[in-house]
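Lay summary. Proteins are chains of building blocks that fold into shapes, and those shapes determine what they do. In this project we predict the shape from the chain. Here is one chain we studied, written as its sequence of building blocks.
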Amino acid sequence: MNNLVLAFPLYNYLKFCNESHNEKTILDCGAGGSNPPLSLFYEHGYKTYGIEICKKQLEKANVFCKEQNMNLNIIWGDMLKIPFPNSFFGFLYSYNTSVHIKKTIL
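And here is the predicted shape, written in a compact code that computers can read:
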């Protein structure tokens, strides 16, 4: 299956990742939706993980995974509190997710 994800920057990032010597493990922050970008990385041999705070978007991603028989490992959570150890991932991906982060005063 060749899943078409209509995001030119995503293909450029995939090319960059493929040329790197980092481990093919990627985290997508804001990974939900009906056509998760992680699927493209999955199809290219990456071990994929995603974090999604919106339960509706997470449900859409779960439907996609079931229909496509892909385990993208997308979980519910906050990208400001990533539940993985440091240096666990070779790559991090996020597309327009940071616009949803509220500015906080420290």
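What the prediction tells us: The first strand starts at residue 25 and ends at 29.
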